[in-house]
Design a protein that fits this description.
Blueprint (H helix, E strand, L loop, with lengths): L10 E7 L6 H11 L1 E8 L9 H10 L4 E5 L4 H4 L9 H11 L3 E4 L4 H6 L10 H10 L2 E4 L15 H4 L12 H14 L4 E4 L9 H10 L3 E4 L4 H8 L2 H10 L4 E2 L4 E2 L4 H16 L3 E2 L17 E2 L5 H16 L8 H19 L6 H11 L1
Parallel strand pairs: 1-2, 1-9, 2-3, 3-4, 4-5, 5-6, 6-7, 7-8
Antiparallel strand pairs: 10-11
Helix pairs in contact: 1-12, 2-14, 2-15, 4-6, 4-14, 14-15
Length: 367
Amino acid sequence: MNEWRSRMTDILDGHVHMGPIEQERAMLAAADACGIARTGLVAIQDPWSGEGLPEALYMKWRYPERFYVFAGLNHATRLSQGKVRTESLADQARRFAAIGCDGMKMIEGKPTSRQRMDVPVTDPYFADYWACVEDLGLPIVWHVNDPEEFWDPALTPKWAADRNWGYGPADVQKETLYAEVDEVLARHPNLKITFAHFYFLSADLPRAARFLEAHPNVHLDLAPGVEMLYNISRHPDAGRDFFLRHRDRITLGTDLFSSLTPEQAVARTGITFRWLETQDEFRVPGFADYLLGPPEDGIIRGLSLPDEVLSRIYGKTLMSLAGATPARLDVAGAGALCDDIARIATELSGKEQDTQAAKVARAFKSS
């Protein structure tokens, strides 16, 4: 096993996914194997199953010093044409903040999300939400777009096509999504947003620089998108210059998820650490998880960033947005929220199910 670990300590990984609470020990083992001290759990809600946010709240409850939670929205009312009752998006954000969530996670901007709910983020449906989050000062981790090759069937990787991450002329286009974000930022310039996966601008660093310069409250995270590593590796000197100039605008993300083995977790984080910290040339190891693609996909060339820059990327910048320590969880309030998520899942799916939300609610009540 390639045990490449960072030379830095007290690392905060701001983009991690928690699966079922039965994977609690696996999540801890993966983070420990990688030397990740604290994590930001990005919690996308699946309103049909009641999964996503409850599991992240559970980990925050169990390990309050270790886990930040960025909470996703529940769109069940919109998806059911009003048959299922949920709070407004703004009221959801207020509730998340009140129970101790550290920020918001948005997937509204990924093309597959747009396929499920064809509502632009500029629509009045989102208007009160944007104003609320701006007023609260909640940081957002937001996935917008996908790699440009996903719109070309000849270039879409098999692992992406297998997940239906391939798009055609009938799907929302990449520049349309970027234009919608520009409109949101023009209306709400004080929003604190970290765009996941480098905002899928790694193939155009001048454009990424212009975007950061135009929007002082915007940041980029490094969650692979393995194409980011390949794109920047084609011009490593330009990449290093970008990271040095924008050292306060970049945060660590690895896209770790709790179903990974420790070996896979080390592969995923190791390629990012090695890319940032060394001048090595290397490939993705063969035992990496399938979302990183096969080793022959390309060469990664290291940026050899100084420790002062690494310390910002590895935690200081995200802590300036979300707090030096995770917010305290209101367990009773979180339990009530999980009860509501479980109810919504039952009503929306039309079937009784022992959801993750119900399990977490019971755990909170028994504590």
